[in-house]
User: Fold this.
Amino acid sequence: HVYPRATEYVAPMIALVESLLAKGVAYQGDDGSVYFAIGRHPAYGKLSRLDTRELQAGAGGRTLADEYAKEDARDFVLWKAAQPDDEAVKAAWDAPFGRGRPGWHLECSSMIKSVLGETIDIHGGGEDLVFPHHENEKAQSEALHEKPLAKYWLHNSFINVNEEIMSKSLGNFKTIGDLLKEYSPDTLRLLILQHHY
Assistant:
């Protein structure tokens, strides 16, 4: 019944970063950004069954390995110091640790805590979110609260359409409404219930 928007939860995000800094699992880099130190959270990598010694900065291709001023290249951004592009699109906020914007993982942890509490029953998503997104969400929330973020993690595989991953950007998807024009609700239920989630 709640559809939270990240921009409505910037104050809780700032509070979460302040708490992580106070606990010593986060630090401010020379560039003004705030990072989560995965080496200070021994449980990091358990969700994705990841050996943190094998992580390589920049391996995902989204950023350059030397783009951030981190103590450890494997650490992730909690609060990114404001850049001219952020200011141009009004995506920067004042915080005690400097003007900037929240990291992607921080948004989800803050909204979950604000709307549902420190531990939720089920957290789900596509298998592509297990690492790094859910792993980072889990780490920052559990390092702060010292309790599980979620009792159960459910990750679905991708649906393939004509040997391609179904995706909105490819336009090769159908909504439930589209399917109901072709099939009865009972037929769709039977199809779905015949498979693992």
About this structure: The longest strand covers residues 120-126. The chain has a mean pLDDT of 91. The radius of gyration is 19 Å. The CA atoms of residues 119 and 149 lie 5 Å apart.
